[in-house]
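With this grant's support, the team has encoded backbone shapes as discrete tokens. A representative record is reproduced below.
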Amino acid sequence: MERSLVLVKPDGVQRGLIGEAIARFERRGLRLVAAKFIWVSKELAEAHYAEHKGKGFYDGLISYITSAPVMAMVWEGPNAVAAIRQTVGATKPWEAAPGTIRHDFALEVGRNLIHASDKPETGERETALWFKKEELVEWSRAIDAWVFEK
């Protein structure tokens, strides 16, 4: 079972799209295992975006992600990372497929509403950065046998 961190970023929160994002992941069949509504500290933002340090957009990215609350979540399922990225859509909203969150609600990269881990390893690393182990809920749903083959 893969896990992915998903963040409804400040623009998504301000536009009231938290429920829309959650509904799409639930309808896809993914299982929510952690969620918290938080104001991101500068330290957490810098740790999350460490790979971009030194790039021209880094300071703006840190300023943006700390500008308003964020809905942080961990979703799991078979091939969860790919399924979530497909549901979210391409980073550039104008390249995102119709029906994806970014296609349907975003116009610019700097306001693309949502973050999703790009690889299973990243999902594990980001989950550990944003959530303590005891904040992750291990559970099964009655529908899991109808969604997951194993």
Summary: The mean pLDDT is 97. The beta strands are 2-8, 31-38, 70-77, 114-116.
